[in-house]
Write a structure and sequence with these properties.
Blueprint: H1 5-35, H2 50-64, E1 69-73, H3 85-89, E2 95-100, E3 103-109, E4 118-121, E5 124-125, E6 147-151, E7 166-170, H4 174-177, E8 181-191, E9 203-215, E10 220-242, E11 255-256, E12 259-279, E13 282-305, E14 312-313, E15 318-320, E16 323-332, E17 335-357, E18 362-385, E19 395-402, E20 406-410, E21 422-424, E22 447-450, E23 453-471, E24 474-491, E25 494-498, E26 510-511, E27 518-524, E28 529-535, H5 537-542, E29 547-550, H6 554-557, E30 561-580, E31 583-606, E32 609-634, E33 639-650, E34 661-665, E35 680-684, E36 692-704, E37 710-721, E38 724-725, E39 729-733, H7 743-748, E40 753-757, E41 760-761, E42 765-777, E43 788-801, E44 818-828, E45 831-840, E46 843-848, E47 854-859, E48 862-872, E49 881-888, E50 895-898, E51 906-911, E52 915-923
Parallel strand pairs: 4-7, 35-40
Antiparallel strand pairs: 1-6, 2-3, 4-5, 6-7, 8-9, 8-52, 9-10, 10-11, 10-12, 10-51, 11-13, 12-13, 13-17, 14-16, 15-16, 16-19, 17-18, 18-21, 18-22, 18-23, 19-20, 21-26, 22-25, 23-24, 24-30, 25-29, 27-28, 30-31, 31-32, 32-33, 33-36, 34-35, 36-37, 37-42, 38-41, 39-40, 42-43, 43-44, 44-45, 45-48, ...
Length: 924
């Protein structure tokens, strides 16, 4: 990174801010002149727009709902309050977001992560582009949505209920909107960091347009929205292998994999809505959605094998409280990495709804929907070093470990010397490839090429009938049926990057880096090393420097799986409108009967012929009854007491339902007599897993002050059962497979018993919490403060879940005990300003592991600060024009993870810089 990048960025943004401030001042003066002398007979018409419009719409949805809900509403057409849906949702009471590469991506509701919650689009369940069920929100452009409704308590008619909540993404309804509008938005995006890699981008754009109109005497409505973004991010990433224990009992960094990373996300999204209602009795609508998502990640760094390698920790180190903070390693053979990851994803969704009011009072409706996603990743690793394993210069590294912030190093080698470094396998990682030297399979692993692919498809049909009635406290009844089929699969292909094949076939051990591939150097000052060589790995593959050799390990094939779920739901819902004494009560009661037929196919390693895995399948069927109750007590003076009770379920993760199973033989454990660490073992999924179950009770007290203010206090308790134990195992006898060992090995075998690892339904526990929230305008306290407002919420969540009677309670994925969200805003005569903060305490988060698989790791406390300033011209020649300046992650909050419950043992420490956007919007 160039040393003057921060000043240059600062000057640019200061200039933009100054120009915007001058323009706002001029516009404000002009507006003052235009409004200084109103006519005596003028009738004031108050039109709420901007920040207040979004707040008032969201409050109206919350107030009028029969369930306990939270809402986000667009300030105007194409203008949700944040740059992403996830950021907007993460500001709601009880909701949090996890950042990935600097972007808020996955959402937890009331302490339960994305795998336990459901996302709908216009009331229809959606597939996901990830490995499991959790929807990645950056697939849905915020610019083309009108709002999001989050159900914290379900009703019987809500299909696709989540264990803790359900988020319904909503597009505009053109007939209900009732006006013609054409709007366009454009934003220029940049980061406080210059590009960290010479072949990366450091500026981007966000473009969107929306058209809404009505035709044929307002019986035909059309809405079309288009969004196109190119969003670059820069990331300084420290990653530790872990912290082993030395002979003296001290922890020490065992290895490191630091990177400078440059991302560029490109996404094109299109939404179309067609509504037709020729009479009051008939209505039909067609919803279409398409998203094309492309992401490119450039990663460069030096992987440093330390304690877990042939390197030596020298005497004379410094230890503090059992952690070595300063020391020296000799004999370090670093692996210089020039990696490239790409992701191509397409997401499509379609839904057709038709409703008809019969002459006898019934409303009959049918809904057909389809959602599918395809994702293909390329994970491209390219290695270089001073020579193959055992050959070439080694490094002497001093190190300084700062608890909670990673490790920096001092190096004796020049990692920018293109004559010293060659393409090779510095650590000999390819020695065991495809059977190793014994079978002639060993290769020079100069890199790795992994191409996992995901396919997910969901088709559903829904039929319903409802009518008003007068049956005591029941004023409406609805019956319905929904049938869906979901099929999801993952396919993995992994290859070694070699120089022509196996070493036994004469392939060379190293090759020079071609000059044509070199593109400069990259600063590694994040770890204290001056710089390293940067080259283009795709040039090496495209021009024959590398040869792909497939990894034929049976374990690779067991990562392939397919899961199918046929789900049928029958439901009945009864709306309530009654009184208890003088207190009006509204709400609903009902139940769902859910029948699931799940199956999976996968790959199973045959112990008698490990080189030729076979197909494997399995499945199960089950039925659950899910009752629900929602009651709202109108206590008068715009005060409401809400009560909800429901049973909900969430099906197990897709990868845990896989029928694949590996068979493992570990020579290093040959003589072990402990079945838990023995020679034989198996590992796989379990297609017979039952769903997680939650029996929940919710209470919420809400006080409203007009249209734009409220205060609320809520509490909830969920009893969890059937909780899946991902690490479950049983001890099995592998005596039938002793023939796989040589006579000598059989005589040395410690035990024929071993672990059969597969997820199992275990015990459960509870999750409980309280939520306090308020949306306040200043004039409630003091009239001169009428243009100021505050939105604040805080929640405390606690849980205790035991997988079995013999283990301690586990951390719930996605649960932060304390969450505080704050937004302070000012809006007056078209001028608006807002500053927001999201705080969450530590939690168990999902991050990328081997072969793009997801693993859990403790994420440290974080507090993210964003701000925005803008102006909307409301009259004159610029009427309809809005301008804004936005800054996200102002304080450059790091993303930190650690292991073993010890914040000193930092695994990840990532910083992303501040993202700035300057934008204009125009409404015709």
């Amino acid at each position: 990174m160039t040393t003057n990048s921060m000043p240059r960025r600062t000057r640019l943004m200061s200039g933009a801010a100054t120009g915007l401030a001058l323009l706002l001042a001029t516009a404000g003066a002009a507006h003052a002149q235009d409004t200084a002398a109103p006519t005596p007979d003028a009738v004031e018409e108050i039109t709420v727009t901007g920040i207040r419009a979004g707040i008032e719409n969201a409050i109206a949805l919350k107030k009028s709902s029969s369930s306990i809900v939270e809402a986000v509403s667009a300030e105007d057409i194409g203008k949700l309050p944040d740059t992403s849906i996830a950021e907007s949702l993460a500001r709601l009471p009880g909701l949090t977001a996890q950042r990935l590469d600097g972007r808020a991506q996955s959402i937890s509701i009331r302490g339960l992560g994305p795998d336990y919650n459901t996302v709908l689009l216009n009331g229809r369940e959606q597939v996901s582009t990830g490995d499991n069920r959790g929807v990645e929100f950056d697939q849905y452009p915020s610019e083309i949505l009108s709002g999001v409704l989050v159900y914290k308590t379900p009703d019987a008619a809500l299909i696709g209920q989540g264990l803790a909540g359900t988020a319904d993404l909503q597009t505009i309804r053109p007939l209900k909107y009732g006006k013609k509008v054409l709007s366009a938005n454009a934003r220029y995006e940049m980061n406080s960091e210059d590009k960290l890699n010479p072949d990366a981008k450091d500026t981007g754009h966000r473009l969107s347009a929306t058209f809404v109109d009505q035709f044929l005497n307002d019986t035909l409505g059309v809405a079309v929205a288009v969004s196109d973004i190119s969003s670059p991010t820069q990331s300084r990433r420290f990653n530790a292998w872990g912290y082993p224990t030395t002979a003296s009992g001290d922890l020490v960094i065992g290895g490191a994999k630091p990177y400078v990373q440059s991302n560029n996300l490109k996404r094109t999204g299109v939404i179309g809505v067609l509504e037709y209602s020729p009479t009051d009795k008939f209505h039909t609508s067609l919803d279409l959605y398409y998203s094309k998502f492309r992401e490119k990640q450039i990663l460069r760094g030096i992987e440093l094998p330390l304690f877990w390698s042939s390197a030596s920790l020298q005497p004379g180190y410094t230890a503090q409280d059992g952690l070595i903070t300063n020391g020296t390693y000799t004999g370090v053979k670093g692996v210089m990495r020039n990696d490239l990851n790409t992701r191509h994803t397409t997401l499509k969704s379609a839904g057709w709804n038709i409703a008809y009011d019969t002459d006898n009072g019934w409303t009959l409706a049918a809904d057909l929907s389809h959602s599918d996603a395809k994702r293909r990743d390329v994970i491209f690793e390219s290695y270089s070093g001073t020579g193959p394993s055992g050959v070439g210069a080694t490094d002497t590294l001093t190190f300084n470990t700062t608890p909670g912030a990673g490790t920096t190093f001092g190096s004796s080698l020049d990692y920018t010397n293109s004559t010293l470094f060659v393409l090779t396998d510095p650590q000999g990682w390819g020695a065991g490839a495809n059977g190793g030297a014994a079978t002639g399979g060993a290769v020079t692993q100069a890199g790795f090429y992994n191409t996992p692919a995901i396919k997910d498809e969901l088709n559903a049909v829904r039929l319903s009938a409802k009518r008003d009635l007068a049956w005591g406290p029941i004023n409406k009844v609805e019956f319905g049926y929904n049938a869906s089929r979901r099929e999801k699969s993952k396919e993995v292909h992994e290859s070694f990057l070699t120089f022509g094949g196996a070493i036994a076939q004469g392939a060379p051990l190293s090759r020079p880096i071609p000059k044509e591939a070199l593109i400069g150097t990259v600063s590694l000052n994040l770890i204290g090393i001056k710089a390293m060589l940067a080259y283009d790995p795709t040039y090496l593959l495209d021009n024959g420097v590398y040869t792909l050799v497939a990894d034929q390990s049976p374990a690779v094939q067991t990562r392939n799986w397919a899961v199918k779920e046929d789900v049928q739901v029958a439901y009945a819902k009864f709306d309530i409108d009654s009184t208890v004494g003088a207190i009006p009560i509204t709400g609903n009661a009902g139940l769902q009967v859910v029948h699931t037929d799940q199956s999976s196919t996968g790959t199973r390693v045959n112990p008698a012929d490990t080189a030729h895995p076979t197909s494997n399948d399995g499945g199960d069927k089950y039925t659950y009854v899910l009752p629900s109750l929602n009651l709202t007590f109108d206590l008068s003076n715009e005060t409401f007491l809400r009560f909800g009770a429901a049973r909900t379920l969430a099906r197990a993760r897709m990868d845990e339902l896989r029928a694949s199973q590996s068979f493992n033989q570990n020579l290093s454990n040959l003589t072990s007599t402990d079945p838990n660490t023995s020679y034989f073992s198996t590992e796989g999924g379990n297609p017979q897993l039952r769903p997680y179950i939650a029996d929940g009770v919710d209470v919420s007290l809400e006080k409203y002050f007009g249209r734009s203010a409220y205060v609320s206090a809520a509490a909830y308790y969920k009893k969890l059962s059937n909780f899946v134990n991902s690490g479950a195992s049983t001890i099995e006898d592998f005596s039938p497979f002793l023939s796989l060992l040589t006579p000598t090995q059989q005589s040395q075998l410690g035990t024929p018993q071993g672990l059969a690892k597969a997820p199992q339904n275990g015990k459960g526990g509870y999750i409980r919490g309280i939520e306090l929230s308020a949306s306040i305008q200043g004039d409630i306290f003091f009239e001169p403060l009428r243009n100021f407002g505050l939105i604040i919420s805080g929640s405390y969540t606690d849980s205790s879940v035991k997988l079995d009677d013999n283990t301690a309670p586990i951390d719930m994925p996605g649960l932060s005990k304390t969450v505080i969200n704050t937004t302070f805003y000012y809006e007056n005569n078209g001028f608006n300003a807002r500053i927001s903060n999201r705080y969450r305490s530590k939690f168990l988060g999902e991050v990328a592991g081997l072969s793009a698989a997801r693993i859990y790791r403790t994420v440290d406390t974080e507090s993210v600060l964003d701000a925005q300033i803008g102006y909307e011209f409301r009259q004159g020649p610029l009427n309809g024009l809005s301008i804004l300046l936005q800054a996200n992650n102002i304080t450059d909050e790091p993303f930190k993870t650690y292991q073993s419950g010890d914040p000193r043992q930092t695994i990840d420490y990532q910083k992303y810089g501040t993202t700035y956007m300057v934008g204009v919007s125009y409404r015709f």
